[in-house]
Structures are given as structure tokens and as C-alpha cells.
Amino acid sequence: MRSMWKGSVSFGLVSIPIQLYAATENKNVSLRQVHEADGGRIQYKRFCTIDGEEVPYAEIAKGYELPDGEMVVLTDEDMSELPLASSRAIDVLEFVPLESIDPIHFDKTYYLEPQKNAVKPYVVLRDALEKASHVAIAKVAIRQRETLAILRVHSDVLMMTTMLWPDEVRVPDFGFLHEDPPQVRPQELTMAGSLIDSLSEPVFEHEKYTDSYREALEAMIEAKAAGNETAKPKAVGAKADVVDLMEALQASVSEAKKSRKPSTAKKATAAKKPASGKRTPKSA
């Protein structure tokens, strides 16, 4: 990983110099736009819609379009004059329980690494957060944009997740919310609960899920690169609409139970099966 930002975590009179790293990475397969006939890359040029001339990157500024179509031009000098009180600092404002924050407000996540002379205060803050079962609410400026963030502990490392501002989260306003709710029968609610129970797990195991689309795309690219023929994916037949809610729930519960029986049986068989042979002692 490469450091993308250097600054400090500041809370009270304590300042902890840190380096910031992106905690996640996009695994999507990168595809280019090309000419189908010969594979040549498609290129785009930046040109001005007024004079039609191509514009070099150094002459490109930011602009805000007014409702009447007039454009307010903002240069790099203009942008540099904007106040960013938290520039190069992650200012801790308060501490709250993590469960008090709705995940809809979370944006991007980063790892925080302490600089060599700041390991001890870093560990103190990390351990104190874990002991208190709280997260820190902070304010930070990254790429000329100020944002709220939370600091929490993950795998013995401080992690920062930027947050959306309150007015950036849309309020759902759908027609059905203003209508009288449909009558739900107790049997339907009970059956829905049975479906939840049949598909419930004690913990979420992220590793058991894979991106099947990306795997198929990578396999197709490898096959084409090797000059092999590729098979078209089978068309998925459209499912018939299920009118009765109870029938749909009952069918879902049955399918969930069927899909779980083999794995349960295997575990039971493995548990009953006696160990064959003697163990070979480990070599010293």
C-alpha cells in the first residue's frame, strides 16, 4: 500500500502524526473503449464548446453553472483561498457508540499508520477506544473537501471512515408511504419469520461469497487471449409470477431447508466417522 495523505490525529492537547492509506480497493476488471473492427483505443479530446479549440489541461478551471446558464469560473487560486480549518489534521470532536450511527452515512474507509515517533500515543488512543467501546467523531479535509469521519479500531489498527453530511442523505418519499398500509395476515408474518430463521447464521462470513460475474469475465478474457473458443452463457428463464404470498414464503422456506440439509448431513457424518489409521508423529 502507498500512503496517500500525511497529517495528524488531534484530540485535546494530543497530536499523533499519521499516514493515511486506502483500506479498500476496487477489483472490477478495467475495460477500455475500443474500435470493434481493429481493437484501436477510443480517445477523447478536451475542447471548448465556445471556440471549438482543444484546451490543454493547465488551462482548465472549475466552473459552477447558475440556473440562468451563466458560468462562475473558479481558478486554483480561488480554491486555495477557501478556509479548511482541519487541513492536514483529523480533529476529534466527540466520542459516541458505533451503533448510534446509521451505516447509510458511511462513505470511504482508510487505515491510519503512526509515524515512527508516534507509536505510543497511537496505541494509547487505539486501546482506549477499544476499552470504551466507542468511536471518535472527527472532522478532516481530504482533496480540498471537508468531511466528518469516525475513527475506530479494526485488526489492531486505527481506521477512519469518512461520512456524508446530513443533507447528503436523501429522505425517502414514495407514494406507498402516504397510503394506508396493506393488511398483513399473522400467518404471512409467521412464515416470513420462519424464512428468516431458516437462513440465519450466528455471524457473517464474508469469505464465502465471491464475485461470480468478475470471475466469469476474467475467464472469458483469458480464453480469448489464449485463442480458445468461448461458450455463451445459458439464458436464464423468466420465473413465473407468484400471486399468493403464503405460497411464495412456504416455497422459499422449503428451498432454504433443502439447500442446508447436505451440509448438515456431511458435518454429522464427519463427526461420527472414526479416525482411520494412526497419526504419524511429527518429526523433531
TrEMBL record:
It comes from the Bacteria. Pfam families: Ku. Keywords: DNA damage, DNA recombination, DNA repair, DNA-binding. This is Non-homologous end joining protein Ku. Residues 252-284 are annotated as: Disordered. Belongs to the prokaryotic Ku family. Residues 52-180 form the Ku domain. Transmembrane segments: none annotated. Residues 275-284 have a biased composition (Basic residues). Residues 265-274 have a biased composition (Low complexity). With LigD forms a non-homologous end joining (NHEJ) DNA repair enzyme, which repairs dsDNA breaks with reduced fidelity. Binds linear dsDNA with 5'- and 3'- overhangs but not closed circular dsDNA nor ssDNA. Recruits and stimulates the ligase activity of LigD. InterPro entries: DNA_bd_Ku70/Ku80, Prok_Ku, SPOC-like_C_dom_sf. Homodimer. Interacts with LigD. It comes from Amycolatopsis speibonae.
